[in-house]
Structure formats: structure tokens, C-alpha cells
Amino acid sequence: MPAADPNAWPTEVRLIEDKHALVVSFEDGAHFTLPAEYLRVESPSAEVQGHAPHEKQTVPGKRAVRIVAVEPVGAYAVRLVFDDGHQTGLYTWPYLRALGDEQEERFGRYLEALKTQGLTRG
């Protein structure tokens, strides 16, 4: 799997009509459909990620979460507003690219963490 390009620049960031996913395309041809649940549980916010790797939180019950707004932040990121009220994460272009490139691995780790902690997707 290619490493995420730290200089990745999006050509499209579009919310799917049912608000359950975000489509992100990059100038090098990479194209991802990122489910809202995945984006919510991998939010770059301190609330989810903590301030160190060992502080990362496993967020249960987000299977049906929706994205209600995509707000540009300068020329480097978007803020996603979720229908559960979460809106503090800034999704930079390199972070969105990494989420796309590593989606299967990251979501697999999330599912395993849920199982280990006795939690559900809801």
C-alpha cells in the first residue's frame, strides 16, 4: 500500500446525499468513499485521539451517525459536523488521504477494539 502523500491535494470533497459518507478525490487519481462512522471514530480531535497514542478512545455506537455539514477551514482542511454533536476535529488533506489509504487496516483495528472492550457499533 502506498504511503499517504503529505502533499496530497484534493480535487473533490463531497458529502454523499444520504450523509453517511464523504467522497474525497486527489489530484493523483486516488479516490475514496469514507463512511461517516469511520470518519467519526477516527476523528483527529483530542476527544478521540487524546494527547498521546495510548490515550486514543474507542468510540462505540456510531454505526448510524451522519455528517450534517462539511465546513472549509482555510485551504488546508475541513471540519466535519456530525449529527451526534461532534465537530471539533479538523480533517487536513494529508489526514483524509491517510484515512483513505489505511481505511481497511484502521477500521479493522477499531472493530477489534470494540470487541475486546465489549462495545458495539450500535
TrEMBL record:
Gene Ontology molecular function: metal ion binding
Keyword terms of this UniProt record: Iron, Metal-binding
Keyword Cytoplasm attributed: no
UniProt-listed InterPro entries: GBBH-like_N (IPR010376), GBBH-like_N_sf (IPR038492)
Domain Gamma-butyrobetaine hydroxylase-like N-terminal, residue spans: 14-97
Keyword Iron recorded: yes
Name of the protein this chain belongs to: DUF971 family protein
Species name: Aquabacter spiritensis
